[in-house]
Amino acid sequence: MNATDTLTRHAPRLPVDPTGLDAAHRATLARLDDTNLTLVPAPTRTARPALRWGLAAASAAALTVAGLTIPSPGDQPAFAGWRADPTSADPAALAANSDECARLGGDLPGVPDGPVRLVLSELRGPYTFTVLYTGDWLRYCLVGPTLRFANATDPDGTTGFVAGDGSQQGSGSVTADADGLRDPAPGELTLATAGTFADDAGDAWSTVLGRVAPDVTSVRVTLTDGTTVDATAADGVYAAWWPGSVAPAEVTGVRADGSTARAGSGVDWSHPAPSGSPQDSDEVGRQDGGSDSGTSELP
Q: Contact at 8 Å (CB) between 180 and 191?
């Protein structure tokens, strides 16, 4: 092969004829139409039971879609939707929340008759927690989709009786600091009562209640397992609640100057977890060390 042959081989080819190319395409398609093609069906999958098992296994844990965790239907955890950071109740609902709490706690023994004064009302998911004054007594109520509960504490920190709604039954155990409901010094806060309650289904929840000085701007509860729960504070009172029976370890507040105030660390706030069934006694007994502890039932 000489140099001329090499140059000829690498020379640009003539442009393809578009008309001829279209004709070739049409001819190929015509041959395909005339050919009897046999379609082989895909293998039939007989894995329906396995598919159901897979869905059940996924549902038992949780289905996660676009960042949302959806518990399986019929297997909803108690207090689904609860939040550690509350929001204030809608101002339009405050009167209704106050009336509901007054109705729930209306039969609590020892609570004086008379007008009630709303202290605070917060939302944690679908649950409303409301605190009222009746005279010098504080009563507090938890209302949710399947729960209506009330309790009351007198000015000395002695816990009153627990009231449920309708046929609801259960039990409660409360520890109270006799000094906890007195006015705190400026920049300070107290932990007055800590309790755990359970309905007859065994679903437990816990509460704390205390006093807070006006110059303490926020309050947070730290539980013995390290969980933190933000409290709602108003009118010199703070309150918080959470699912389960884990006791509070301490309560901290942030003063207006940014420093930290602490309460609750001087008292053992642990208490027997309620059994979820009515107790035989509604009495409240006094312990040594200035704290009260007792159990009561949801009638």
A: yes
Report CA-CA distances (Å) from 21 to 18, 25, 102, 153, 176: 5, 6, 89, 94, 94
Cβ contacts of 283 within 8 Å, gap of 6 or more: 294
**Which pLDDT tens digit goes with each residue over 154-184?**
877 666 556 565 555 667 788 888 788 889 9
pLDDT tens by residue, 4-61: 454 445 444 554 454 555 565 565 555 545 545 444 443 333 332 222 222 222 222 2
From the list 65, 89, 76, 219, the residue with the least C-alpha distance to 141 is: 89
| Of 266, 299, 291, residue with least CA distance to 174 | 291
Query: Which token pair is 136?
Result: 């010098």
CB neighbours of residue 291 within 10 Å:
21
Q: Where are the domains of the chain?
A: 87-271
Name the pTM for this structure: 0.66
Q: How many Å apart are CA 94 and CA 246, to the nearest integer?
A: 29
Coil, helix or strand for 130? Answer: strand
